[in-house]
Design a protein that fits this description.
Length: 102
């Protein structure tokens, strides 16, 4: 008499392994989709001021937080312009030192 042992696992591609493969493929595809979406560029000071004005306009529609957002955007624009001025002054000073114009 021949006995059969049904307790041994029988692996098939359509079973558990197929399910795992399908989830692994979706995980591997996710970073590629994130890379395809480009980050928006950095706004200039003029663009920041324009966006701040648009947020300030929203206060007329009852948006209570719009004024603080507008102020924050203007603060960022101010800090950027001050940093740029400091870099330009430092570069001019360094060039003067190199050229011996002190």
């Amino acid at each position: 008499m021949e006995s059969q042992n049904f307790s041994k696992p029988h692996w098939s591609p359509s079973g558990l392994l197929g399910l795992l493969r399908s989830t692994l493929q979706s995980v591997e595809e996710a970073p590629a989709s994130r890379e395809s979406t480009a980050r928006p560029g950095r706004l200039s000071n003029a663009e920041l001021a324009e966006v701040a004005n648009e947020w300030r306009h929203r206060t007329s529609y009852g948006d209570l937080g719009a004024e603080s957002v507008a102020q924050a955007l203007e603060l960022v624009a101010t800090h950027r312009s001050q940093d740029k001025q400091k870099r330009i002054q430092a570069m001019g000073k360094r060039l003067s030192e190199l050229m011996g114009l002190n």
